Amino acid sequence: MFWQKRKPVGNEGMGLAERVATEAEGFYRSKKMHCAEAVLLAVKNNFRPEIPDMVVEMASGFGGGSGTGCLCGAVAGGTMAIGLVLPHDARRVKKLTQELHHWFKNQYGATCCKVVLANHKGICPELTGSVAGKVAELLSEQ
Known about the structure:
The protein has one domain. 63% of the residues lie in helices and 0% in strands. It contains seven helices and no strands.
């Protein structure tokens, strides 16, 4: 099942994946954080709110494909978020990380930031929300 963001009327009645996606996209659009930070913070807020926000600082080097255009920062942030929500469960973390990567590659053609941006100009805000929503969906199914 592929998660696709729908335009919500308001926050009430919104499903968890939609709420996480909307929050992550908003964080990105605020220009106060990049894709990896936005995905990680939105997932943390909705799955592990007791963890301090400062954990998001761990994602600071992953924006823009780790500054080199390689692995998409949103995917890196999503991978970190999965590990944050499922501590001490390496098998499930690996499985969900693989599902996230496969989903992303099917949606956007590659997990490389440079390749995605070459084929989808200006997609980062929406992509950030979509990745966060997919991570929430994967975690909710567990």
